[in-house]
Amino acid sequence: MAKSTKDIKALLAEMTLEEKVGQLVQLNTALLGKSTAEITGPAQKLGVDPAQLKYVGSTLNFHGVEEMIALQETHMAEDRLGIPICFMMDVIHGYRTIYPLPIALGASFDPDLVAKCTRMAAKEATAGGVQVNFTPMVDYVRDARWGRVMECCGEDPYLNSVMGAVQVKAFQGDDLSDPENMAACVKHFAAYGGAEAGRDYNTVEISERLLREYYFPAYKACVDAGVRMVMPSFNSLNGVPSIANKWLIEDVLKKEWGFDGVIISDYNAIGELLKHGITDDMKEAARLAFEAYCDIDMMSPGYCKFLGDLVREGKISEEALDRAVLKVLQLKKDLGLFEDPYRGATPEKEAAVCLTPEHRAIAREAAESSAVLLKNEGVLPFKKDVKRVALIGPFAATQAIKGFWACNGEDKDCISVEMGVKNLLPDAEVIAVEGCSAEWNELSREGFAAAVEAAKNADAVVLCLGEPQNYCGEGNSRADIRLPGVQEELASLVLAANKNTAVLLFNGRPLVLTEIDKIAPAILTMWFPGTEGGNAAARLLFGDANPSGKVSMSFPKAVGQCPIYYNHPNTGRPKRKAEEIHETYTSNYIGCGNLPLYSFGHGLSYSNFVYESLELDTDTMTDESTITVTIRVKNDSARKGREVIQLYMHDLYASTVRPIQSLIAFEKIELDAGETRDVTFTVTEPQLRFYDFNCNHISEAGEFTLSTGYADHLLHTKSFWLKK
Ligand code: NOJ
User: Fold this and answer.
1) Domain boundaries, given as residue ranges, for the chain
2) Alpha-carbon gap, residue 528 to 75, rounded angstroms
3) DSSP letter string, 441-501
């Protein structure tokens, strides 16, 4: 598409105050173009004057390309200045072809794959009329109780930064006016994932040092990658909700990081300033948010009803209003909306682009690469010449495996485990038995007998367990993160009946699998794998695909360990004895070790990767010089496979307590059977920096170590010294 020549400053000069305010208001399609009588449901509560609706500048989560076209047509016919509406949506892990959850993408440790999935989503979503995407979500997380851990790439700031930046670049491309590119919006700034007790929307109190070290890096990486929009979070951060938090938005985001794109509130976050008790007046809430640089108000009455008056009364300057409006117009211009308000989206194009065999292939590849083989005592892969396969459990036959927040994806397009295994093994007898429900409050054991019978008569058994797909995502926190209902009981009966059994999991968060781990010889998590989940699962179970995912967020042994994360600071009394031994007067639990059941970076393969050595080319480094690390890995098996080579750093002594380890680099490689490869990483001084007590980002001279392996299984540790 040709670059827009629209003169937005000239346009601004023609706009009335109402028209300007309209550009800063985002309402859903239940409101657009409606009269008071037609506005129903929750939208009614906004109490917006229908006269103002015609100026509304953007909308969210609309219902398909036809609705987009109809609304835009009516709007363009009536808008005297011809300013198109901008259509925004949450395209979190695919539009129609759904790929695995972001937490699963994190587990793939494969940025190229993430870019491929993201391009696919951009292509489908733009054909469906989406112009701005409320993605990526890069909230740093430590607490698996929080339902939204599914939306980020896991517990590591570096991994989240890499994956966040990749998504921003892949959604936006080099030229936003290309109709297959869309604007990205990083969220939820900041520290939404720090919700106390893992309960969604809960208070967040975090020191500035912690914010900068763990929580900020991924947002910053997205800003550096050129993200066009930022969404402040719902939560209060150190006493002030993010939407009105001037330190966060003005000092950090704008001044320090130089962000000058559009800032959009989360859904009714301005209205929620009243619930937070910051003010009892919606007009004041609007003023506070505007003062904190919020450009667009998503779904609160604040800007729509009061921004005009605030400007008329001189409480907000016309210049500040103009600056915000210009940013929104600039985005519309860059998207090419003034030339084509539909950006070429049509029902025909959407149908041609979505759910194609090529897109299904990408979704399957992603599901295979992000599944994590948590445990395998030789059961997997099953032999393909099995005669009878029993698929047992609530996820054996269901197509409800696309995962929460799957945009326009539909369960009916998903391949269930049963469908996948039948596709792969057309000659085998494959039976699926539900056994029990996955709901927490459905405790019927009536299906157990049939499940045990099926297990006894099968050559291979797959226990398909997990949590329902709506147990994670927004508003879905859990206090007990074991398998819900009577699934553990079902598992123990089935495993007693047939030892040639693997557990196949569907989960949007790390679960507590301690009891399952004791009895199951093999556990493979698919997370929520999306449209092609069943095909991917079948290929992994029967050896056509080789697992290569690694845990992106610690699986605790008990919920009481939460929050739990691998890169924690040391205490003055670290535990010294073996994991299972309790040690009074050191930092540990009675009856439960300190380590998670499966730690960050863990994940098995059908190949056997041997880490032979880690060598440094020098043991001293300065601010200017670098260290080259060479890790030699051998695939000591007869199967080709992929392995994630991880590099961890520890700063042994520093003026503030340092994490016992931090991931500073990784690379996913493929090794043929018997192949040996040297993987090299370059370490530079900025990778050794941390925040001192006064929040200066510095490195200090002294001893550091580098290791490979994974979080609780570091290998070949070597020291070096930073000289100043
Ligand atoms: C609320 C969610 O917190 C946010 O992530 C999302 O983008 C908006 N709603 C819009 O759907």
Assistant:
1) 370-561, 609-722
2) 39
3) T----TTHHHHHHHHHT-SEEEEEEE--GGGSSTT---S--S--TTHHHHHHHHHHH-SSE
Substitution candidate for ligand 1 out of 187, 201, 268 with most atoms within 8 A of CB: 187
The dotted CATH code for 609-722 is 2.60.40.10
The arrangement of secondary structure in 370-561, i.e. its CATH architecture, is 3-Layer(aba) Sandwich (3.40)
CB 86 within 8 A of CB 335: yes
Model pLDDT for residues 277-306, shown as the tens digit of each residue: 999 999 999 999 999 999 999 999 999 999
Is residue 90 lining ligand 1, measured as CB closer than 6 Å? yes
Q: Is the pLDDT of residue 42 over 70?
A: no
Q: How many residues are recorded in the chain?
A: 724
* AA letter at 423: N
User: Is residue 266 annotated as part of the catalytic site, yes or no?
Assistant: yes
Best mutation site among 90, 270, 296 for ligand 1 pocket (most ligand atoms within 8 Å of CB): 90
Ligand 1 near 406 CB (within 6 A): no
Direct distance between the N- and C-terminal alpha carbons of the chain, in angstroms, rounded to an integer: 52
Confidence (pLDDT) at 36: 62
Residue 555 near residue 510 (C-beta atoms within 8 A): yes
Which tens digits make up the pLDDT trace of 318-364?
999 999 999 999 999 999 999 999 999 999 999 999 999 999 999 99
pLDDT at position 33 is 66
pTM of the model: 0.98
Domains 370-561 and 609-722 share a fold: no
Q: How far apart are CA 237 and CA 645, in angstroms?
A: 36
